[in-house]
Amino acid sequence: MRLLLSLLLPSIFISLATAVVGSPLEQRASCTLTASGSDDASAFLSAAADPSCPTITIPSSTTLNISSPLNMTGLKNKHIDLQGTIRFNPNLPYWTGHAFYFSFQDQVAFWLLGGQNIVLDGGGTLDGAGQAWYDAFAKNSSLARPIILTVYQANNVTVQNIKMINSPEWTNFVNEGTFVTYKNITISAVSTSKNQAKNTDGWDTFRSDNVIIADSNVNNGDDCVSFKPNSTNILVSNLSCNGSHGISVGSLGQYAGEYDIVENVLATNIRMSNAQNGARIKAWAGKGVGSGIVKNITFTGFVETNVDNPVIIDQCYETDDDECAEYPSNTYIQDIWFDSISGTSSGKEKAVVASLSCSPDGRCSNVNVNDITLTPPSKYGSPTFSCQNLAVSGNDADLFGTCSMTG
Ligand SMILES: *[C@@H]1O[C@H](CO)[C@@H](O)[C@H](O)[C@H]1NC(C)=O
Ligand SMILES: *[C@@H]1O[C@H](CO)[C@@H](O)[C@H](O)[C@H]1NC(C)=O
Ligand SMILES: *[C@@H]1O[C@H](CO)[C@@H](O)[C@H](O)[C@H]1NC(C)=O
Ligand SMILES: *[C@@H]1O[C@H](CO)[C@@H](O)[C@H](O)[C@H]1NC(C)=O
Ligand SMILES: *[C@@H]1O[C@H](CO)[C@@H](O)[C@H](O)[C@H]1NC(C)=O
Ligand SMILES: *[C@@H]1O[C@H](CO)[C@@H](O)[C@H](O)[C@H]1NC(C)=O
Ligand SMILES: *[C@@H]1O[C@H](CO)[C@@H](O)[C@H](O)[C@H]1NC(C)=O
Ligand SMILES: *[C@@H]1O[C@H](CO)[C@@H](O)[C@H](O)[C@H]1NC(C)=O
Ligand SMILES: *[C@@H]1O[C@H](CO)[C@@H](O)[C@H](O)[C@H]1NC(C)=O
């Protein structure tokens, strides 16, 4: 009877009918997900695995409760129309041991989204319910906090027009992805207690090629975007980042025996406010580190406000000068452009507004600066541009003068 009615009547009636607990219509309507009152992960996974659901809809009135991991790899031609909210239940003891594990930096994840031709959009929200995680992490820094969304082993994925809030740790991980595009994403990770929302990167790319991150707003407590090992052909454009650690290449060359590549990156039209860094490249040095290459990176059109290090290369990352002289970084840095970078530093580094600090022995080459108009807070007087162990090129090279050489 109900089935007949549903065939005859408009969809509004179907949703009313499916609201009746236990209705058999729930199965037939499984491409549209509504909250069950308990864990909604299996319903979401079933819809994803079902080829007769090319579009999965999460209506705007729905908050899905995800209380177990979402392995959504190997999808094909899938559209997730997220109008409502997907919330990851902050059952900390459960996720410890159940989240997906990546050996890279011991990352863990709630949701793996992979396969081919995937769209995630709809105006809704991914909610990491991070507060409980921030508070627990403040007491126990070995707690592994899951990433909200990991695009994993994927080709041709678009994520757009959604919000991502309060991720326990990184917000987006692009891991082994090609042709992955993010547009019009609003990211916010803010703690309401005294415990900070730490390591809540906006995006991290890893072993990925042809990634676009555009037209988005990020308010968080770590990198706005970070290019991790083997990130190539990446465009980052039109972002507003607040409170972050900057647009960062690296850190690279951390692990002995590994070779890290970051190549062909353009970061353009970036507004960076109240941040630790603006445009940054960091690579490890010291005994027993790895190796790699950072090549053809352009940072252009940055407008910065109250940023500790508006422009920074640190090729002796976490390594003091003596050790860096003895064991220079094996991650070479070449063909770098900092163009059209304006605004103010925070004064944390006093008058220094740009710092290009390389390992000894010519490990940085062809580093260019053009149209740099950065100033420190007025009490520090005129800006200082510092550099070490490289020859700076470009129209504004004279700002840096002769760089000190060590080692
Ligand atoms: C989510 O599902 C879990 C597991 O069934 C349940 O314990 C929890 O109360 C649910 N939370 C909400 C907000 O529905
Ligand atoms: C995810 O599921 C696929 C099969 O559908 C499986 O091959 C893969 O090992 C799973 N991944 C993880 C990390 O559990
Ligand atoms: C990428 O995916 C979109 C949406 O699923 C599809 O329309 C498009 O044809 C795909 N592009 C390629 C090159 O496969
Ligand atoms: C901290 O968290 C780790 C990982 O979950 C766990 O193994 C360890 O027992 C916890 N330590 C304390 C003191 O709770
Ligand atoms: C951007 O995404 C928001 C949802 O977060 C949506 O309301 C808005 O319409 C989107 N803008 C465009 C231009 O699509
Ligand atoms: C930049 O992104 C914002 C959304 O954050 C959008 O409203 C605006 O139109 C974009 N600007 C350009 C030039 O695309
Ligand atoms: C921007 O970040 C600063 C520092 O973290 C914070 O105090 C401020 O509230 C943020 N602004 C907005 C609009 O969220
Ligand atoms: C990066 O790519 C190089 C060259 O293909 C490879 O040797 C290296 O193992 C890769 N590194 C990572 C972290 O995947
Ligand atoms: C440098 O990277 C840009 C993308 O940022 C790319 O368009 C350009 O082709 C690359 N140059 C070379 C020589 O590969």
Question: Gist?
Answer:
With 407 residues, this protein is mainly beta. Helices cover 13% and strands 52% of the residues. The protein has helices spanning 2-8, 11-18, 25-28, 41-49, 92-95, 131-139, 321-326, 397-400; strands at residues 55-58, 63-66, 70-82, 85-88, 100-102, 107-121, 125-127, 146-165, 172-188, 203-206, 208-219, 225-227, 231-242, 247-252, 259-273, 277-284, 291-307, 309-317, 330-345, 352-357, 364-375, 384-388, 392-393.
If you average the pLDDT, what whole number results? 93
Bound molecules: 2-acetamido-2-deoxy-beta-D-glucopyranose
Helix share of residues?
10-25%
Net shape: elongated
What's the architecture in CATH terms? 3 Solenoid
Helix segment tally? 8
Q: Radius of gyration from the CA trace?
A: 23 Å
What is the subunit organization of this protein?
Answer: single chain
- The overall number of domains is 1
Distance between the first and last residues' Cα: 84 Å
Q: From the helix content, strand content and strand pairing, which structural class follows? A: mainly beta
Largest sheet: 23 strands, mixed
CATH fourth-tier homologous superfamily? Single-stranded right-handed beta-helix, Pectin lyase-like
Level-1 CATH class name = Mainly Beta
Which blocks of ≥5 consecutive residues have pLDDT under 50? 1-29
Total number of beta strands: 23
Strand content: over 45%
By CATH, the topology is: Pectate Lyase C-like
